[in-house]
Amino acid sequence: MKKVNLGSGTTCLDDWVNIDSSFNARLAKCPRLRYLLFKIGILPKEYYEMPWSEHIHKVMVRDVRKKLPFDDESVDFIYSSHLIEHLRKDEAEKVLRECFRVLKRDGLIRLIIPDLELMARNYLKEIGEIRNNKGKKNYLPSERFLDIFGVGVERTKTPFILKIFLSGSRHRWMYDSISLTALLESCGFVDAQKRSYKEGELPDSDLLDNRPEHSLYLEARKP
User: 23-68, pLDDT tens digit by residue?
Assistant: First the structure.
């Protein structure tokens, strides 16, 4: 049985093929450079302390926007958490078509993304609370909402190399359950089902799932 985790980060289970192409993962392959960037103040402490050294030996560093390194219909399960929102919509579609290609018939994909509908509802709720004098003082819901999309104003001067490091964290597209289902169906998937945190048909979702406070969980099959 072959199970693939696309955009794994440091959530790397031993019996999964873990793939990640982030600058984090690439830098973890060069520990001396990573340490040097931290010591000279370019790599922030919170990024340096991420436990990449414990997991990087389990990670295949590969750009998922390119052809996946698997034969047609050779994968049983695909899991991807908080990845496709960092891709342009056309890139996300290309990745999902590759997922469709490599999955076996009746193979299952589980996608976790920020839930645009939930975020929009929370934004409107916060606006209403402020208008009714029940919200936080000196708090602008618009700034937090726009920061989610990576369009917030850059408040500090950021070193060029750090801009490269952080560029992958920017959201380039957002989805709700309707738009994500439509995208999956356009790539050939069927029976898209909204799931709950750590619940569903995909194996190990109880070990892999994260960020339940604002995530959408969706599973679909290859017919």
Answer: 888 888 899 988 898 888 888 888 888 888 888 999 999 999 999 9
| Residue 190 β-bridge partners | 221
**Distance between CA atoms of residues 54 and 220, nearest Å:** 32
Find out whether 82 and 113 touch, Cβ atoms under 8 Å.
yes
Nearest partner of 47 among 58, 37, 57, 56, judged by Cα: 37
In angstroms, the CA 163 to CA 185 distance is: 35
**In sequence order, what are the beta bridge partners of 108?**
77, 221
- Cα 94 to Cα 42, 88, 99, 179, 205: the distances in Å are 34, 10, 9, 16, 24
Helix (H, G, I), strand (E, B) or coil at 19: strand
User: Domain spans of the chain?
Assistant: 3-115+172-221
Q: Any idea which residue has 């929102």 for tokens? A: 85
What is the per-residue pLDDT across 186-212, written as a single tens digit (0 to 9) for each? 999 999 999 999 999 999 999 999 999
Global pTM value: 0.89
pLDDT of amino acid 175? 96
Least confident stretch, 22-26, 72-76, 123-127, 158-162: 158-162
May I ask the CATH architecture of the domain 3-115+172-221? 3-Layer(aba) Sandwich (3.40)
Handedness of CA 73, 77, 79, 85 (dihedral sign): positive
